[in-house]
Amino acid sequence: MRAALWLMALFAVAAVSALFAGNNHGTVTVYWPPHRVDVSLNLALLTLAIGFLLLHLALRALSALLRIPQRARDWRLSQRERAIYASLLDAWFHLVSGRFVRARKAGELMASLEESVQRSGEQLPQAGRLRAIAHLLAAEGAHAVQDKTRRDFHFQEALKQTSKRDAQDAREGMQMRAARWAFDDRDAGSAMQWLDQLPHGAARRTLALRLRFKAARHAGKAQLALETARQLTKHRSFSEAAGRSIARGLAIEMLRSAHDQVQVQAAWNALSKEEQALTDVALEATERLIEVGGDTALAHQWVLPVWSRMVQSGDALTMVQKVKLVRILEAGFSAANAVPDAAWLARIESAQMGKPSDAVLQYLAGCICMRLSLWGKAQQLIKQSLPRLQDRELQRDAWLAMAQLAEQRNDIQGATEAYREAAKR
C-alpha cells in the first residue's frame, strides 16, 4: 500500500512539473557588464537546485573528512570497551566454573584495560562501577585460592572506587563480601565489625542477617545469634519448624553458659514467651538454676507449664523429657532442704493417683514420701515402680532410695542388696 502511494505521489509531481515547465515562457536575465545573459526560468531553477545539491554534498564530505580522527578515537574506545566487557564475562564464568586463578587474571586484565582508557583521556560510562567490579572479581578469585595479599590489595582498590558518585551503591556489597571473607577465615570478630558498618536497611537484608547469624554462632554469642534467628524466621528465611529448633538450641546454649543465679535469670528473661514455653528450654533453665544454687521456688515456677502439659496429656513429653522433669523436681526438693510446699504436694499426689500405672510418677511420689518421713508408703511406691522403670539412671536412684529406706529400718542385708543393685546400673 505504501509503495502504491509513493508511486501515485511520484506521478503527481511529474505531472505538475510537466505542466509548469511546459507552459513556462519566463526568462531570467543576468547582467554582467558589459555582458548580458538571458536564460529560461526552467534552466535557472534547475541550475539552482543542482548547485544546492553539490554544495550540500561538498559540506558533508568536508564534515566527514574532519571527523575522521574522532571516529578513529571512538572506534578504538569501542574496541577497548568490548575487551573490558569480554574480560568481565571471562572473570565471571571462570569464577563460577572454579577456575579461580584465571578469574583473578581476567579481573586484573579488566582493571588494566579500564585504566588504559582513563590514561588516554577518555571516560567510559559507569567507569567507577566497572573498576570496582573488576577489582572485586579479582579479589574473589584470590580469596578462593587463599591469596590474602592479592585479595586485600584488590579489595582496597575496589573500596576506593565506591567513594565516587557512580559507584556509591556498590559499597554495601563490598562490605558484605568482606564480612563473608572474614567469616571464611574463621575471624568472626572482623566479620561482625564489617556487618556493623552496614546501614540500617542493608543490615536487615537476608544475606546480612545470615552472615551475622553464622558469625555470632562461631563467636559463641548465643544471644545475638538468637536475636538474628528470630529476624530470619520473621523474614521467612527459616521455616517455622527450623526457626523453633534453632531457637531452642541457642536458648539452651545461653542457659548453659550462665554461671550464677543472676546470669541464669537474665538469660531466661531474654527469651520470648514462645521460647520459654518450649519443653527442653524450660527444663534446662530450671535445672541450671538449681545447679547454681538459685531460688528453688522460682525454678519450680518456670517448670510448672511443663508439668501441666505432662499431666494433661501423656504424649506431650517424651520419656527422656519426663525422666528429666522428675529428676529436676527431685533435685529441687533436695536442694531446698525442706518439705515441698503444699501446692506441689497436691500436684504430685493428684498426678500419681490419676495415673497409678505411670512408674515415673510413682517413683517421684515415693521420693516425696521420703521427704515427708512416710517410710512405709515411700518403700511401697518405689518398690512397685522399680520393675517398670526404663531409665537406667532412674533405676539406680530408685535402688539407692531403697537402700536408704533399708538403713532407716536398720536392715543391713536389705541395704547391702539395694546398693549392689544400684552399682549394677
- Look up the CATH topology of the domain at 339-425: Serine Threonine Protein Phosphatase 5, Tetratricopeptide repeat
* Helix-and-strand structural type: mainly alpha
Counted by DSSP, the helix tally is 22
User: What share of the residues does DSSP label as strand, in percent?
Assistant: under 5%
Strand order of the largest sheet: 1-2
Q: Name the quaternary structure.
A: single chain
- The overall strand count is 2
Description of the structure:
With 425 residues, this protein is mainly alpha-helical. Among the domains are: 38 residues, no CATH class; 87 residues, Tetratricopeptide repeat domain (Serine Threonine Protein Phosphatase 5, Tetratricopeptide repeat), CATH 1.25.40.10. Helix content is 77%, strand content 3%. The chain is built from 22 helices and two strands. Strands 1-2 form a two-stranded antiparallel sheet. The longest helix has 29 residues. The radius of gyration is 45 Å and the shape is elongated. It starts with a helix and ends with a helix.
